[in-house]
Amino acid sequence: MRHNGQPVILASSLPPNLISLSERSCALVACPTCGAWKSIKRGMVTAHRGPHVPGADAWPAEFRPSPPRCPGSGQRVRVDLSVDQWRQRLADTCREAGRRRPTRVIPRPKPPVARAVVQLAAR
Ligand SMILES: [Zn+2]
User: What 3-state DSSP class applies to 115?
Assistant: First the structure.
């Protein structure tokens, strides 16, 4: 498989929730184009098919065209983090997100409903 010609993405430049590192299995990354989780083989996102073509659902399943190859296939990703570094970054990010204050929902009064034309004529 050839790379897609896009510049190399460093794992350290990605948010830690878009990459998954483990000692037991290969690294996973969310495809930068479609967001699907794909493994990294030979420093590239494995080939996969992209999201469905719009309007393809109208076709019967046996005639439905298969989605084209995702442009994020073959994206080069350099894993420059160790598993421990990635875990620490993920924990720090989760802690920081937990500290954020939720937005306060302010209920607004509903605008008055306009009378129907029939009701206006009755007056
Ligand atoms: Zn993709």
Answer: coil
The pLDDT tens digits of the residues spanning 14-43 come to 999 999 998 888 899 999 998 999 999 999
Report how far residue 64's alpha carbon sits from residue 55's, in angstroms, rounded to the nearest whole number. Answer: 10
CA distance 76 to 43: 6
Domain ranges of the chain: 9-95
d(CA 118, ligand 1 centre) in Å: 56
38 CA distance to ligand 1 middle (Å)? 8
Residue 74 CA to ligand 1 centre (angstroms): 9
Residue 120 is classified by DSSP as: H
Bridge partners of 20, per DSSP, are 28
Nearest to 67 by CA among 81, 79, 56, 83: 56
